[in-house]
Specification:
alpha/beta, 6 strands, membrane, transmembrane helix, DUF3105
């Protein structure tokens, strides 16, 4: 039904929805026509084409992958520390093993050492005191008969040769006697002095006629080396000082002969103190 206003155009009645179903026999209000999908902008412009629709679309840009290589620095450091730790443990274990061996075994392990206790057992019998000059087959001597007076061996450094007869008695007490050629360079002599000076059961003196620059003696043992930097010098001292004594660790080294010269001093024999009971 249309309602007309006099003198005016025909007006469409307003339909108000009440949410109620229309009464029987009354038609429902017509739906508004749906807007066209993809309608263009006002003014007749074309809409943006969809991918896959007509026309060529822009190809998608592939993401750029940044390659991150493995960092080898920390791995190398870890490996190096591990190798170092294993090395330290190994050296420590070897030192403990070596330290647990009898000193005779450790002496045999010193490269180049001569063991006269095995080569000539009669040579190294102790307690054979004789006055006067004594001829020694091994020079510098490493044992055998000797003067009753010993050379002072409290880390004494002698700047001239000393009597073999007194020196051998010091060896019997557990001394390591280091000898060197008189023409050994001064810096080498100083290095030897630093190993000896002020240390009990050690003494140092020049010796004529050595076939090697430096020769070390203990009772029954000898080692010859070419220079004072040879690590075997320290090994010899550490292993044989005191240990090689055949009179025990308490054998005296003080109150001995302090004079230099190769002639033995027989007049001192009755003035030497008695050795302590071992």
């Amino acid at each position: 039904m249309s309602i007309s206003t006099p003198g005016g155009p025909e007006r469409r009645p307003t339909v108000v929805s009440t949410g109620k179903k229309p009464a029987a026999g009354r038609p429902a209000a017509a739906d508004k026509p749906a807007a066209k999908a993809g309608a263009g902008k006002a003014g007749g412009g074309k809409g943006t084409p969809r991918p896959g629709a007509g026309g060529k679309g822009r190809k998608p840009i592939a993401p750029v992958k940044v390659s991150q290589g493995r960092s080898w620095g920390p791995i190398a450091l870890f490996v190096a520390v591990g190798v170092l730790a294993v090395g330290i443990i190994g050296v420590g274990a070897w030192a403990v093993y070596q330290g647990g061996q009898p000193w005779e075994k450790r002496a045999q392990a010193i490269n180049g050492i001569v063991d006269y206790r095995e080569k000539d057992k009669d040579l190294v019998k102790g307690g054979n005191h004789q006055p006067g000059a004594i001829k020694y087959d091994v020079l510098p001597p490493v044992g055998g008969p000797h003067n009753q007076a010993w050379q002072n061996c409290m880390g004494d450094v002698y700047d001239a040769p000393i009597a073999n007869e007194h020196a051998v008695h010091s060896l019997e007490h557990g001394t390591v006697w280091i000898t060197y050629r008189p023409d050994l360079p001064a810096d080498q002599v100083e290095k030897l002095k630093s190993k000896v000076q002020g240390k009990e059961k050690l003494m140092l003196s020049p010796f004529e006629g050595l076939d090697k620059p430096i020769s070390l003696q203990a009772w029954g043992y000898q080692l010859k080396v070419d220079n004072a930097d040879d690590g075997r010098i320290d090994d010899f001292i550490k292993t044989l000082r005191v240990n090689a004594s055949i009179e025990g660790p308490n054998a005296l080294c003080d109150q001995g002969v302090t004079a230099t010269g190769t002639a033995p001093r027989d007049n001192l024999q009755n003035t030497m103190p008695q050795q302590p009971t071992q």
